[in-house]
Amino acid sequence: MFLGQLVNEALNFALKTTIKEPRPLGCGHPGYGMPSSHSQFMAYLAVYCVLWSYRRVKLDDYLWKILGNAGLCALAALVMYSRVALRYHTVNQVLVGAFVGSIFAIFWTALTAIYVDPEISKIEKWKITRMLYFRGHDHR
Q1: Which residues cross the membrane (predicted)?
Q2: Over its length of 140 residues, how does the chain's per-residue pLDDT go in tens digits?
Q3: How many angstroms separate the CA atoms of 126 and 76, rounded?
Q4: Which of 9, 13, 23, 58 yields a CA-CA distance of 20 to 30 A from 131?
C-alpha cells in the first residue's frame, strides 16, 4: 500500500505539471491545483482499503467491515469537501483527484494481486520463514 501511495503521489505530480491548472483565485497557496493531491490520496486510501478488506479481512460479522469502510469513505468525502470549502481547489479539481485516486487504487490492487501475492505465497514456504513464523496475508 505504501509503495502504491508513493507511485500515486508521483502520478499526481506528473499530472499537475502537465495540466498546469491554477488554484482558485485568492487561494494564496503556491502550485497547481489540478488534480487535488489530498482528494487523490484519500480516494486511493479509501478504495484500496475497501478492496483489501473484502479480499483479506475475515470477519464473522460483516457489519463491522461495512461500518469501517463506510467510515473511511466518509472521512475521504469530508477531506474532499474541506478542500473546496477552504478554497484550495475547485470542485472539478477535487473530482478529478478523486477519480484518479480511485482508478489508481483499483489498478494497484489488481497489480499486487497478480504479481505480488503469488511471490509472498512462495516466500511463506521457505524454511527460514517457517522457522520465524512468517505468515503472509492469506493466513487464517
Answers
A1: 38-55, 62-82, 94-116
A2: 788 899 999 999 999 999 998 888 887 888 888 999 999 999 999 999 999 888 777 777 778 888 989 999 999 999 999 999 999 999 999 999 999 999 999 999 999 888 877 777 777 777 777 666 666 655 54
A3: 40
A4: 58
In whole angstroms, how large is the CA radius of gyration of the chain?
18
Instruction: Output b/e per residue, 30-63; b: 16+ Cβ within 10 A.
Output: eebbbbbbbbbbbbbbbbbbbbbbeeeeeeeeee
Residues in the chain: 140
Give the H or E element holding residue 83.
helix 62-85
Taking the C-alpha atoms of residue 98 and residue 96, their distance in angstroms, rounded to an integer, is 5
Q: Tell me the whole-structure pTM to 2 decimals.
A: 0.82
What 8-state DSSP symbol labels residue 21?
P
How many CB atoms within 10 Å of residue 18?
Answer: 10
